[in-house]
## 1
Amino acid sequence: MLLGGCSPARTQGASASWAKAYPTLQELTQDADAILVGMVEKSTPASAVDGIPFTDATVAVNIWLKGKESASAITVKQTGGAVPGASVSVVDPLMQPGESSMLFLHKNDDGTYTALSGPTGRLLVSGTAVTKMPDTSLAEAIPETLPALIAEIKLLL
């Protein structure tokens, strides 16, 4: 009798670097193709590219701050996910269903989006509290509430 899949799961680590750092909210706002507040509805594995796994998160949009989109949901592509026999973890944790965020996004040619500089382009929202992700390049302090952050971003647009 052969048993498949009985070996313990492995976790592989991966490091990521981004082409540009965003130390200020102004730089992040200026470079973003889209800025929005939304909640992750689902997260699904996407096709790997050169052996690198990707995950697509479907985000229901609550507020559009920048971008001419009227879509009620978008797809945000992230590096990382499951690969055969292991899971890959990166410094930008995968978005999870139920997670609310303010996102600073680059629009890809295929219509999907990617957060600018990974965790830098993703500010977590819990109620009205806003926090930066670990490993962000955003060095300056940001407003601690969503209404104050939205007001500041509107001034920067």
## 2
Amino acid sequence: MNLNLTVQIRKEKGTREARKLRLQGLTPGIIYGSNKEEATMISVSEKELTKECSSASFFNSVLTLNIGDKTERVLPKAVVYHPVTDRVIHVDFMRVSKGSKVKIQIPVEIINEEKAPGIKKGGIINLVVHKLECYVDPENIPEKIELDLTGKEIGESFLLDNIQLPIGVKPVNPERDAVLATIVISNVSTVDDKSQSTATTESTTTENSK
């Protein structure tokens, strides 16, 4: 997904200048350099930036920043929101150079939960890794990693070694993220079973005492 934003170079920095920009409907930001390139201070329309930030894939998308007569390819790195109003008050971007690898977090999602026998038997899915940190080609950033529950039973796990990741995706911490998800016995089911067992025992005891 490639998004476009028009930004302006800003020369002044500091709290006072940032306040002026926000009064004009602009959000201050910075483009961090890659290799030996220097960081560039910018401002961007708050309205346009807020619209793009609302996209679930914003942080996994390469953006094209239009700066005068040139463009910069970047990845969003951080967005700062006002603690009370939730306005976007600052944004950080990182330049993306051709042939480079970038480190991002890819959302992990469950699919076909209704086709899992283990879920039908009362199990629940324990998603251990909600976002998998990976090195990827910025030109081919996957939107998400799907875990298919079809045919999965209670006790079965999704191991990173057994998952076919998209081409060009390499986990940053394969040992830490070795188990992505597992189907476990529901605590509710366990409590219900224990309650039923206790009730049966009490009933039997009562009958025997008569």
## 3
Amino acid sequence: MQPDSHFISYQGIEIEYFLTRKDVKYVNLRVNKHGIVTVSAPPNVPFDDIEDFVRSKADWIITHMAQLEQIKSHAIAGK
């Protein structure tokens, strides 16, 4: 199953995330090493609850993505 792309706006910053509905117990959020935000959620969780969850984690997402960018720029500068 292909994940659905969604966006939230947080303090003027657009955050794209990919939502997959699957057989998990809780809503899970990950930011991979490429800065892609993925969310997996049980089929019975309302979409509004998922959006609220992502919005509640927006500070963490933005901080994590900034750290990834810093690591990338250091790696490029070191080459």
## 4
Amino acid sequence: MGLMQTGAVQLRELLDRRTPDGSLSSEPCDGVVCTDAGGRILEVNPVAGLLMGVEAVNLLGVPFGRVVRFLDEQTGQQEPDPVETCVRTGRRVETGNHALMVVHGGASLPIAGSAAPLRMARGALKGVIFVFRDATPIRIYQRRILARDRETPPPVPMQPDMPRAGLLAEFD
């Protein structure tokens, strides 16, 4: 199997993780969207369709930027479209640490993701692959940690001549 064929097989496996019997894998999976060099959607795996709230077949041929937009979760400011930025620069682009993906209809989802260029053998840009996952569980965990830190009183500064509770008892 040639290098290009091996890459195509790996891309197909990434786009559609299915078990040998054809059912979806129960393991967590990333959403994967492939576009052409103009940013129009060519492939969408089932997870991406589910996370984007649109049937994958309805996304084909549509410019990625018309399907989703990105906001900073904390400020609400519009963030650059990673796929468009990747097409323009030809470089890998990560979503911000607090990226919120807003899909058609206004539903939003915190995500972690990146867009990477897909190149032809001679280096010309063939398209972009955008891989992302739902970051809701991580955001919930982060909020719990922050809330716990706010509830914990700050440590009392030690004076040089103050005995430390328990420390001397260990050496008696």
